[in-house]
Design goal:
Blueprint: H1 2-15, E1 19-23, H2 29-35, E2 44-49, H3 53-60, H4 64-70, H5 75-88, E3 93-99, E4 114-121, E5 127-132, H6 137-157
Helix pairs in contact: 1-6
C-alpha cells in the first residue's frame, strides 16, 4: 500500500490539498497508512475514529435521523461523516468508511463484509460507493483501507 500512499502524497502536494479521514470499521488504519510516509504532515491533517454512533454525532455532526432511519453502515451516514470531517478539520479532501467487518454484526441487508465509502472534496459533490468484501475481520478491513486509498487517488486524478 505504500506505493499507493506515495502517489496520493505526490498528488496532494501537486494540487496543494490537505486530507483528513473519518473512520469507523477501519479503526484508524487509513490514517496509519498515510502517516507511515515521512513528511505526511505537509498533506495530512487529521484522522477521526468514530466507532460509536455517539462519537459520529458529537465529532462529525452525523444526524440522529440518519443513524436511526438508515443505520451507521449506510450511504447517508458515511456521506455525513466525510462532509463532517471535511468541514471540522478545514481541509480540502476527505475519506470516510463505515462497515461490518465481522465476524458478527451482519444482517441480511448488511452482511459481514459490507463497507460504505465516501470521498468529499471542497467544491465537488461527495462520491459514495458500497463494497462487499470477503474474508475474516482483518481481511475485510485491509481491503477497505486499500479501496479507500484507491478512491482518494481517483478523486485527485479526476
Amino acid at each position: 500500500m505504500q506505493d499507493l500512499v506515495t502517489k496520493i502524497a505526490a498528488k496532494l502536494l501537486e494540487k496543494k490539498r490537505v486530507l483528513a479521514t473519518a473512520e469507523s470499521c477501519t479503526g484508524g488504519w487509513i490514517a496509519q497508512q498515510l502517516t507511515d510516509v515521512a513528511g505526511s504532515s505537509e498533506w495530512f491533517d487529521s484522522g477521526c475514529v468514530t466507532y460509536s454512533n455517539k462519537s459520529k454525532q458529537r465529532l462529525l455532526g452525523v444526524s440522529t435521523e440518519s443513524l436511526e432511519s438508515c443505520g451507521a453502515v449506510s450511504e447517508e451516514v458515511v456521506t455525513e461523516m466525510a462532509e463532517g470531517v471535511l468541514s471540522s478539520a478545514e481541509v480540502s479532501i476527505s475519506v470516510a468508511t463505515s462497515g461490518v467487518a465481522g465476524p458478527g454484526g451482519g444482517s441480511v441487508e448488511k452482511p459481514v463484509g459490507t463497507v460504505w465509502f465516501a470521498w468529499a472534496e471542497q467544491g465537488k459533490a461527495t462520491r459514495t460507493e458500497k463494497k462487499q468484501f470477503s474474508g475474516d475481520r482483518e481481511s475485510v478491513r485491509k481491503q477497505a483501507v486499500k479501496y479507500a486509498l484507491e478512491g482518494i487517488l481517483k478523486n485527485l486524478s479526476d
